[in-house]
Structure formats: structure tokens, C-alpha cells
Amino acid sequence: MRAYMGNRIGLGIVGLLMASAGVGVLAARADHLGTRIVDLSFFVNNAWARPPAAAAAILIALLVTRWLAVALGWGRCGSRTGSGTAMLGVAMKGIEGIGRIQVRLVRDKRMRVLVSLLPRADLHEVIGRLDGDAIPRVRGAVDREDIPTLVRLHVRRR
């Protein structure tokens, strides 16, 4: 199983557990309508505690919102193209030290290519292959011969 699938399955299980716990609390609350769930007398008696509690609640809400935006992939531009990635892999075949490759099309206006290199990779050979043969082959694979392309090379330290 891939790591992201395990992450999604784990998050789904935690979400189901939290939802069922919430339903259980609401069902228990329906039986005892007169009782209080949380005693807020501390905040009523101590005015100094209200601003830190509000700041903590706002901070937690912002952190959760940021996590949700990252988890859902908002802000990522374009869609992955499997045929472009496969063609880039074929074009880069034989070069040692390539870690990961990725091709994205951004609204039929441009193409983004990410090549992650291991420290032992020959950078001059990679750039020469990208300039000479690889990018035109990828453009042909996605049926856009004249699309502007941004290539990002990431060289890992370890």
C-alpha cells in the first residue's frame, strides 16, 4: 500500500471515530437536557483568561484551515499527465541518479516539469538531455508542440 493511501485510510478511520463519538455525545445530551456539558464559570470570573482563550481558538482554527488546504491540494497548479511523465522517463533513460520526475499541464497555457536528482547525478548530462531531446518528446506526448515549459531541477543533498 502506498503511503498516501495509508494516510487517507487512517484519516478516514479517525474521522469516523470522531463523528461517531460526536453522535454519541449528542444522544447522551438529549437524555439530560438540563445539565451543562462544560462549566465556563472560570471565564466568567476571570476576565484576563478570555483573550488568551480566544487567541488560542483562532490559532487552532488557522492551523486546521492551513492543514486542510495543504491536504486537499489547493494552490497546486495544473493536472498531472501520465503520458508526459512516461515519455519524460523514456527520454531520460540511461542517466544515472534521477530520483523522481513529474509533468503537469497548467490550463493548456504552460507545462511544468519537475526532475529530482540524487547527489550522484551528472547535472550537465541531465540539462543537455532535457534541452535536446526530452522536452520536445514530452510536448509531443501531450499534443502541444509549442507550449511554454518550466523545468525545475531539484538536487538532493543526500
How is the secondary structure organized here?
Elements: H1 3-31, H2 41-45, H3 50-72, E1 79-80, H4 82-91, E2 98-106, E3 110-117, H5 123-141, E4 149-155
Parallel strand pairs: 3-4
Antiparallel strand pairs: 1-2, 2-3
Helix pairs in contact: 4-5
What does this structure look like?
This is Alkaline shock response membrane anchor protein AmaP. The chain crosses the membrane at residues 51-74. Keywords: Membrane, Transmembrane, Transmembrane helix. This protein is of the alpha+beta class. It folds into three domains: 1-37; 40-75; 79-155, Alpha-Beta Plaits (2-Layer Sandwich), CATH 3.30.70. Helices cover 54% and strands 16% of the residues. The protein contains five helices and four strands. The protein has helices spanning 3-31, 41-45, 50-72, 82-91, 123-141; strands at 79-80, 98-106, 110-117, 149-155. The chain has a four-stranded mixed β-sheet. Strand 3 (110-117), helix 5 (123-141) and strand 4 (149-155) form a beta-alpha-beta unit. Helix 4 (82-91) crosses helix 5. The longest helix is centred in the N-terminal third of the chain and has 29 residues, at 3-31.
